[in-house]
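Give me structure tokens for this 285-residue protein.
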Amino acid sequence: MERITNPDSGKHRRKGTTYRITDDEIKRYNTEGYLTLNEVLSETELQTLDHWFDHFVAGKEMERMGRDFCDMSQPYGTPFEEFQLVNAMLPSFYRPELANNIFFQVAETIAAQLYQDGKAAMDYEQFLAKRPSKEGAEFAMHQDLGYWPKTANTWTATFSLALTDSDLINGCLQVLPRTNKEPELRKHVPKSYSEDDENGGSRDDSHTLVIEIRPEDKVVYLPVKRGSVTVHDERIVHGSAGNLSEDWRKTYVMAFRDVETIKQERAMGFTHSHNDDVNWDDIIT
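Here you go.
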């Protein structure tokens, strides 16, 4: 079992809203498909986000969010009190007060350093929370690109900000390094909740996709402290296990993509909302 940290990173990298990364980290991201960066936000900055995170995860906006408020480990329609992995999509769409928050401002500067072939912008965001003592609060292994339309330029940097410490016991991010270099995406199928469905479930039942893990796959765990982030690209295989701790695990996810890619998505009617009216058969690989 391998755990990856990046002890050379930390708050000394911050000046204003700019968090500097190194050439070696950029190379590692492009090769391995991920990075860990410590102390990206301060405790004071994190506290400006805590309120809104807890507001959404408590279900305060659920009546108007539709499928954008769901459990990513269970089917749509699961009663809120039975949620294990709480997912709130596009929070700043539903509460514009969140727009241009400090996480966005700092992550934007890191994305600009990682992406040197054009201009990146935020494509989507989500709040993810694993309830305490919920072994089933797992995020199935997948590649993000398996969820999205196949645009000409797929470049993505997805930032996961730890709002609580994240480790093996509460289901930290796990990755399969260099799977971003595989020539083809792995086959993704909708998660099935019935033992009778041998070919997978339906995207109408759940947003969650799953892939088959290969015997040669070697998982690497990415534990991080509150205020630190992991960054991963669109092709790396990743996921997370359930929460065996007695506390919530809280994560704020924000993805950056090329501005032209975002325009292409929107022209297709794709906004990353689970309420989008799209033909999922054209998206799933």
